[in-house]
């Protein structure tokens, strides 16, 4: 995992990770360019040891309770075990809300862990004590929208860390059939190009598509030491079971499958049509 900060402090004294092979140069053929949207810190949050963001889904209403998304391994009660899914757990966790330039402008508070798991994906979703409309009225901040379609290989992305107040820019290098780290396995993970050299404390950062401004994944891990399938050293496993290790390369978990599991009022319904998130 891109470890929560406390577990990562000792790693910060180690030299930086090695660079991956350069990405192939684009073809000379002219292509239509899409103007990138402006990506900044607005709507991101800092946790006690991780990053996150205030998120909404395409079907969310302004009057709905707002949600914060981060990693499963950022859950305040500890890492969910393999196969464990947590829903409806009481929480009073607080989050520092950031504006566009990364200044903390307010504190948001949760009243529930709506959903948390490290099985197939690595995500925690908190319900806040306030609504999107109230956040907009008080702070002028809008939630980030979680895209409900699969991200695209080669897309430009930014990983926005509310904890470090740092933005990493790179591209989606590809997708990993299975990403295995210690006892956990994640499905169809996003692999970054080498420029997104995320570190401990960036866990839970939204991964934003620069063409749409939508959240397409949540940052969660990277191979630090070149080890194979150990904690902090995930390995890629293909459909034939072949294992690949990419030292210094970082990953995220897709989020497009999450909106289908939330219905009117931002209520979780794991039995909703199209919902494929793991169930308790």
Report, as a whole number of angstroms, the end-to-end distance: 23 Å
Helix count, per DSSP? Answer: 2
Shape from CA axes? Answer: globular
Per CATH, what is the topology of the largest domain?
A: Thrombin, subunit H
Helix-strand pattern, N to C? HEEEEEEEHEEEEEEEEEEE
Highest-level CATH class of the largest domain = Mainly Beta
What percent of residues are in strands?
35-45%
Q: Write down the Rg.
A: 18 Å
In the sheet with the most strands, the strands line up as 1-2-3-7-6-5
For the residues shown, what is the average pLDDT?
A: 91
Biggest pleated sheet:
6 strands, antiparallel, barrel
SSE class: mainly beta
Structurally, how many domains make up the residues?
A: 2
Unreliably modeled segments: 6-33
Per CATH, the architecture of the largest domain is Beta Barrel
Share of helix, binned: under 10%
Number of strands: 18
Question: Could you describe the 3D structure shown?
Answer:
With 280 residues, this protein is mostly beta strands. It has two domains: 44-146 and 262-268, Thrombin, subunit H (Beta Barrel), CATH 2.40.10; 148-254, Thrombin, subunit H (Beta Barrel), CATH 2.40.10.10. Helix content is 4%, strand content 39%. It has helices at residues 5-8, 132-139, and strands at residues 44-46, 51-56, 65-70, 85-90, 94-98, 104-117, 123-131, 144-145, 156-161, 166-181, 184-192, 206-209, 215-222, 235-237, 243-244, 250-254, 262-263, 267-268. A six-stranded antiparallel β-barrel has the order 1-2-3-7-6-5. The chain has a six-stranded antiparallel barrel with strand order 9-10-11-16-13-12. It is globular, with a radius of gyration of 18 Å. The two termini are 23 Å apart. The model is unreliable at 6-33 (pLDDT under 50).
């Amino acid at each position: 995992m891109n470890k929560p900060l406390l577990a990562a402090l000792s790693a910060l004294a180690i030299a930086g990770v090695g660079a991956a092979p350069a990405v192939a140069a684009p073809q000379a053929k002219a292509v239509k360019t899409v103007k990138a949207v402006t990506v900044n810190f607005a709507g991101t949050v800092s946790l006690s040891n991780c990053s996150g963001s205030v998120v909404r889904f395409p079907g969310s209403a302004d009057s709905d309770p707002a949600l914060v998304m981060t990693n499963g391994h950022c859950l305040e009660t500890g890492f969910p075990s393999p196969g464990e899914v947590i829903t409806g757990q009481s929480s009073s966790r607080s989050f520092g809300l950031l504006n566009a330039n990364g200044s903390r402008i307010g504190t948001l508070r949760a009243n529930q862990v709506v959903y948390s798991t490290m099985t197939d994906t690595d995500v925690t979703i908190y319900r806040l004590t306030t609504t999107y409309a109230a956040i907009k009225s008080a702070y002028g901040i809008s939630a980030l929208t979680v895209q409900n379609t699969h991200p695209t290989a080669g897309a430009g992305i930014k990983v926005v860390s509310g904890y470090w107040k740092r933005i990493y820019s790179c591209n989606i290098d590809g997708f990993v059939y299975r990403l295995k780290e210690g006892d956990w396995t994640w499905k169809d993970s996003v692999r970054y190009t080498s420029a997104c050299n995320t570190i401990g404390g960036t866990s839970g950062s939204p991964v934003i598509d620069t063409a749409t401004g939508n959240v397409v994944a949540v940052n969660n891990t990277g191979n630090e030491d070149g080890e194979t399938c150990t904690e902090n050293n995930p390995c890629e496993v293909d459909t034939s079971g072949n294992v690949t290790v990419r030292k210094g390369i970082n990953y995220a978990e897709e989020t497009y499958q999450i909106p289908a599991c939330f219905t009117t009022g931002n209520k979780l319904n794991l039995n909703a049509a199209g919902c494929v998130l793991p169930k308790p």
